[in-house]
Design brief:
Layout lengths: L10 E2 L17 E2 L5 E2 L1 E5 L28 H15 L3 E5 L9 H11 L5 E5 L4 H11 L3 E5 L5 H8 L4 H13 L6 E6 L7 H10 L3 E6 L17 H9 L4 E6 L7 E5 L5 E5 L12 E4 L4 E3 L7 E3 L1 H5 L4 H13 L19 H4 L2
Helix pairs in contact: 1-2, 1-9, 2-3, 3-5
The structure holds S-adenosylmethionine and iron/sulfur cluster.
S-adenosylmethionine binds next to strand 6, strand 8 and helix 10.
């Protein structure tokens, strides 16, 4: 069915198809034409998921990517090594789909840690099943976990994610804490149905030693239900939270951090807001992304993808792969333009990119 296709845009296949490097300075890092340098690598490892969040997936889920089209654990490890040693990447995050649906996630982390010892390796997950694998992931080299949780109201959770799995998510968070995979960040997408659950979620996060960040909903849902005029923005959230807590703005942790932070009731607890739509931070973006099929995506919202899997499987050397990756990032566009009237959605939806 075309409407629920994974939405894979035309992928550049290497050779003459690789973006032009004209004007690019001869530096090893992932620089672009706007002076940005990417240090943060996000790797989607699957399109499968145990939930069906309405702001992300269609009810039937995304089409399964055939096993041989997914990067293997060894291929992921090799690309992580190239990213860190040749291209200046300093942090790697695994995402999806739901990364915990991959049986070889521990192996993916292990191969990545071996390829780039000392590089922080993080996981973005819905938490389902994390309690059973947190220790093995930590032992394999995982440094940190972000868990997505939008509400503590079980009915609201079930409606929003189309699955009644709140207890499993909470068990996953507890398991990650026990394994020492902290400081745990909790990400909540701002939705109208759960806006008034936000104060309780913040109270719970503070009590449980989690750093909560709210994210403005982006037009990356497979159902294409997002409307600029209906979305909950940072201002509206601040009004709701401000009725319960005293909030003091403290800015961003570092210039490339997507979240702006507020002290809660004088601190030390904080709450973050990632206002991707109303206060875009594209000018400070330091990300490079790999799809589960092994293509570089220079921007969450760009449809440009440049294939590395073909090169890997054709026996290309690290230098050649690094050069194609550099070219892909040199072509990165200036910004996403969600707030522009002529904004066009990317072909892939969030579950196919990974956030
Ligand atoms: N399944 C994992 C999870 O939910 O954390 C990883 C993949 S998920 C696509 C990554 C992040 O994207 C999650 O924090 C999720 O809440 C967020 N996300 C999904 N759809 C979004 C949207 N339309 N706008 C903003 N954030 C979104
Ligand atoms: Fe799955 Fe994460 Fe998308 Fe929710 S946000 S449907 S958990 S991939």
């Amino acid at each position: 069915m075309a409407a629920i296709a994974l939405g894979i845009p035309a992928v550049r296949r290497g050779g003459s198809d690789v973006p032009s490097m004209a004007g690019r300075p001869d530096v090893p890092g992932l620089v672009d034409r706007f002076g940005r340098v990417a240090h943060d690598l996000r790797i989607s490892i699957t399109s499968a998921c145990s939930l069906r969040c309405t702001y992300c997936m269609p009810a039937e889920g995304l089409p399964v990517i055939p096993r041989d089209e997914l990067l293997s654990a060894g291929e992921i490890g090799r690309l992580v090594g190239i990213a860190v040693h040749e291209l200046g990447v300093r942090e790697v995050r695994f995402t999806g789909g739901e990364p915990l649906t991959r049986g070889d996630l521990v192996e993916i982390v292990r191969r990545s840690a071996e390829a780039a010892p000392g590089t922080p390796l993080a996981l973005t997950t819905n938490g389902i099943g994390l309690d059973k694998r947190a220790e093995a992931l930590r032992d394999a080299g995982l440094s940190r976990v972000n868990v997505s949780l939008d509400t503590l109201d079980r009915e609201h959770f079930a409606r929003l994610t189309r699955r009644d799995r709140l207890p499993a998510v909470l068990a996953g968070i507890a398991g990650a804490h026990r394994a020492g995979l902290g400081p745990l960040k909790v990400n909540a997408v701002l939705m109208r149905q759960t806006l008034h659950d936000a104060p309780a979620l913040l109270e719970w996060a503070i009590e449980h030693g989690c750093r909560l960040r709210f994210i403005e909903q982006m037009p990356l849902d497979a159902d294409e239900a997002w409307r600029r005029e209906h979305m909950v923005d940072a201002e509206e959230l601040l009004a709701v939270l401000g009725a319960r807590f005293a909030l003091t703005p403290v800015g961003r942790e570092d210039p490339a951090a997507p979240a702006e932070e507020w002290l809660v009731d004088g601190g030390p607890a904080t709450v973050g807001i990632i206002a991707s739509v109303t206060r875009p931070f594209c000018g400070a973006c330091d990300r490079t992304r790999l799809t589960a099929e092994g293509s570089v995506r220079s921007c969450l919202f760009g449809d440009d993808e440049t294939d590395l899997r073909g090169l890997l499987r054709a026996g290309a050397g690290d230098d050649e792969i690094a050069e194609v990756w550099r070219a892909a990032m040199w072509a990165k566009k200036a910004g996403h333009g969600i707030d522009d009237v002529d904004f066009v959605r990317p072909v892939r939806t969030m579950g196919g990119i990974g956030g």
